[in-house]
Structures are given as C-alpha cells and as structure tokens.
C-alpha cells in the first residue's frame, strides 16, 4: 500500500495562498466582508475536523496493547498502547506519514487506507463510521445557518402521546419541543434557557436532572459516546464548540471523559428514575429518526411495569 505522502509544506502553502486570496478578494466586485468571514469559518472548521481526526486516531492507538494484535510486549514502553511505527506496520503505511496524520496535517487518506487503519486499530462499526465522518472533505452546514423548526404535525403527535414522555432533539441535542408528560417527569423545560435545555447540559450540569437518574454515571457515559458519534459532522462549528467549552467549565466528569473520544451507535435501553414525588420509576427509551427532518430525533419514554411505573405516571399526569 502506498504511503500517499504529501508535500511536507503543503498545508503551510495552502494557508498562505488562502491569506493572499482574502487580501485580493476586496478588489473584486461582489466579494464582501461576510463572504470573507464565511471562508475563514470554512478553514477553521476543516482545521477542527483534522484535530479531532488526529486525536481520535491517537486515542484508539493508545488503548491497544501489543498482545492485542499479536506483537510481543517488549520493554521500556514510555507511552501506553502501540507505538506509531507498530500501528503503521499493521496498516501497511509509512511511519512518517502516519505520524503526520496524528499531527493533524492536511491529509485525506483514501477509503482503502482508511479501512486499513480501522482494521489495524480494531475499530467497531460506530468507530469506523466516526473515522469516515471526520475524514470527510464535505464542509458541514453551520448549526446556526438553518433554524430548527418543529412543525405542527410533529407537535400534534407529541401532544397525543399522553402516557409516554417524549421530546424532539435538534442537531446539537437541544430539546426543541416536548409533551406534557416529559415536562412533568423531567422538571419543566419552560423554566430553562436554550443552553440549559440541551441534553448534554442537563446530564452534566443540571443537579436536578443528575439526581433524577438512578444510574447516572452509566447513562452519562453512554449518552456522551452517542453524542460524540452523532455530532462528528459538526466538529468545529461555533455553536457546537461553545457548548463543549461550557460543559468543560461546568462538569469535572465531562472534562475527564470528553478527551477519551468514546463513540457509540444509537442504543435503546432502560432508564430508572428516582422522581422527587413518585419515587422509583422505570422507562424504556427509544430514539426515532424523522424522515422529514433528518437532523432531528424523536425520543420516547415508554413506562414499564417495574416499580409500578404506569400507575405513578398516571398520578403525575392527573
């Protein structure tokens, strides 16, 4: 397999050329400051995506032991996991080229090379998809460029789920709409600001929501891994980065877990809640993609027989 070695200075030349283009742009009719800002944002987004790609590769390499891939343990390993040269050998690429990948150089491996890297790193399906998404050359649409509107048919469906708490999540996992059952069960969304209605913010920075979840740590870890996988296409977006910075400041657990780069595919599971009025309750939660709104999800909680949840929910709704 070819190393696909790029010119060492290609990224630097690319940035210099882009700067020169921006300097000259003002001399052309129809090129204004807003268009220049959009170009800058696109460059920043690609830089952020490369950094995320590099960090993900490094984190997956460092979790592998030599014995996991049939190599001798050896002595005097100063860092955890495989060495770069060992991973490069397993993937059939050059050590220098692989090192550039982990440095965030402006390199886009071919699908064949990406697959070889995924095999060498022993990635599962969710991790493979994450790697492909981060390697994409397609610029993401800014989160703020298209308003997230929950249409009336979807709102009517929410309202008609009278005995199933349900809400709609947007691209950033903000709760955009909810029904009465969800409002009563989860403590009232109207009292919260836009950032506070974000699912990750509620998990990591909302004391009430944290106390509501019986298995908080397990739920938080799984949810964070699913969030990371789902939001990879928005890496570098200002709204997304602002949320990450906010959570990093407010939650020591988020600060510790986010750099681990764990990713998971969407899961259906059981959540046990300790409601302040009704006590223990159990729900099966399901996430449904919306064909008419591909960036939105409908999350539905179905009460289970455990802990007499149906009766308690009915009393809460009465």
Tell me what the structure shows.
The protein has 318 residues and is of the alpha+beta class. The protein has 2 domains: 10-134, Orthogonal Bundle (434 Repressor (Amino-terminal Domain)), CATH 1.10.260.40; 152-317, 2-Layer Sandwich (Beta-Lactamase), CATH 3.30.450.180. The chain is 48% helix and 12% strand. It is built from 14 helices and 5 strands. The chain has helices spanning 10-25, 33-62, 84-91, 95-102, 111-120, 125-134, 152-160, 180-185, 199-205, 207-212, 216-231, 238-250, 252-257, 309-317; strands at residues 166-169, 175-178, 269-275, 279-290, 293-303. A 5-stranded antiparallel beta sheet has the order 2-1-5-4-3. Helix 3 (84-91) packs across helix 4 and helix 3 packs across helix 5 (111-120). It is elongated, with a radius of gyration of 23 Å. The protein starts with 9 loop residues before the first helix and ends with a helix. The model is unreliable at 1-9 and 35-40 (pLDDT under 50).
Topology of this structure?
Elements: H1 10-25, H2 33-62, H3 84-91, H4 95-102, H5 111-120, H6 125-134, H7 152-160, E1 166-169, E2 175-178, H8 180-185, H9 199-205, H10 207-212, H11 216-231, H12 238-250, H13 252-257, E3 269-275, E4 279-290, E5 293-303, H14 309-317
Antiparallel strand pairs: 1-2, 1-5, 3-4, 4-5
Helix pairs in contact: 3-4, 3-5, 5-6
- Sheet bearing the most strands, described? 5 strands, antiparallel
Radius of gyration: 23 Å
- Residue stretches low in confidence (pLDDT < 50, at least 5 long) are 1-9, 35-40
Number of helices: 14
Helix content: 40-55%
Cα-to-Cα separation, first versus last residue: 67 Å
Task: Look up the CATH topology of the largest domain.
Answer: Beta-Lactamase
- What's the SSE pattern? HHHHHHHEEHHHHHHEEEH
CATH architecture assignment name of the largest domain: 2-Layer Sandwich
Shape: elongated
CATH class of the largest domain: Alpha Beta
Domains (count)? 2
How would you state the average pLDDT, rounded? Answer: 85
């Amino acid at each position: 397999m070819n190393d696909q070695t790029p010119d060492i200075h290609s990224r630097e030349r690319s940035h210099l050329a882009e700067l020169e283009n921006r300097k000259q742009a003002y001399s052309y009719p129809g090129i204004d400051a807003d268009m220049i800002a959009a170009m800058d944002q696109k460059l920043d987004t690609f830089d952020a995506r490369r950094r995320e790609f590099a960090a993900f590769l490094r984190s997956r390499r460092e979790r592998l032991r030599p014995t996991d891939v049939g190599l001798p343990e050896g002595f005097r390993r100063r860092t955890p996991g495989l060495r770069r040269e060992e991973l490069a050998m397993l993937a059939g690429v050059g050590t220098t080229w692989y090192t550039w990948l982990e440095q965030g150089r402006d390199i886009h491996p071919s699908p064949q090379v990406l697959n070889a890297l995924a095999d060498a790193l022993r990635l599962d399906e969710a991790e493979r998809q994450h790697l492909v998404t981060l390697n994409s050359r397609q610029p993401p649409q800014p989160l703020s460029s298209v308003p997230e509107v929950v249409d009336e048919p979807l709102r009517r469906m929410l309202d008609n789920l009278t005995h199933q708490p349900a809400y709609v999540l947007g691209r950033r996992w903000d709760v955009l709409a909810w029904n009465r059952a969800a409002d009563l069960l989860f403590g009232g969304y109207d009292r919260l600001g836009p950032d506070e209605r974000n699912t990750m913010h509620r998990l990591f920075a909302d004391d009430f929501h944290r106390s509501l979840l019986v298995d908080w740590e397990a739920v938080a870890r799984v949810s964070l891994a699913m969030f990371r996988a789902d939001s990879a296409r928005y890496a570098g977006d200002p709204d997304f980065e602002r949320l990450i910075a906010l959570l990093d400041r407010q939650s020591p657990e988020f600060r510790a877990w986010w750099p681990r780069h764990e990713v998971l595919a969407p899961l259906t599971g059981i959540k046990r809640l300790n409601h302040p009025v009704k006590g223990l309750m159990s729900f099966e939660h399901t996430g449904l993609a919306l064909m008419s709104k591909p960036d939105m999800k409908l999350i539905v909680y179905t009460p289970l027989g455990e802990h007499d949840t149906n009766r308690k929910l009915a009393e809460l709704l009465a």
